[in-house]
What does this fold into?
Amino acid sequence: MLARYRLTIIGFGVAVITFSVSWIFQFDLMERAVIFLQSLYIYEHYELDELLLPLMILGLFALLDQRRRRRLQQFEQEKVQLYGAMLASTHHILNNFLNQLQMFRLTAEDTPGFPADELLLFDQIIKDTVRQIHNLETVTGVDGEKIYAAVMPQTQTPGSPRKTLRQVFGTFLL
It folds into this structure.
């Protein structure tokens, strides 16, 4: 935990040491810095003392912005990890289901009188499912549109003999 705040702890230590040294020796660092800057031609010519407050405000907002971006980046990383874990779990479940469907296919294949075109449709459904799983695995970003586009069914060519699940199994199964 301390490693996360290492620079903050170092900064706090330097600040405490600086304050202690200036208090013990009655040495005002800001006054010395102003005297040094006043001795320079640049300080008076460009009014650097007037730039100090705007630079401090800019630094504060830059720090806040960096903190916000780091938090958003961490959130996105957690989202990608969650998507990966969910995808792996879903992949496992679907592969088990596809293996069970293969057992069903073997039984249907051995059943006399089972229509061959139904087996071809069944094979096509399995291939489409495998393709969609593969497409989900290759999604590059975690946003709804990319995920939805990965599982969209491929368009059929006009006149291709393909039945829907409802036509094959009837409305009582769906």
Residues 157-162, 170-174 have pLDDT under 50 and may be disordered. The chain has seven helices and no strands. Residues 75-169 form one domain. Residues 90 and 133 are 9 Å apart (CA to CA).
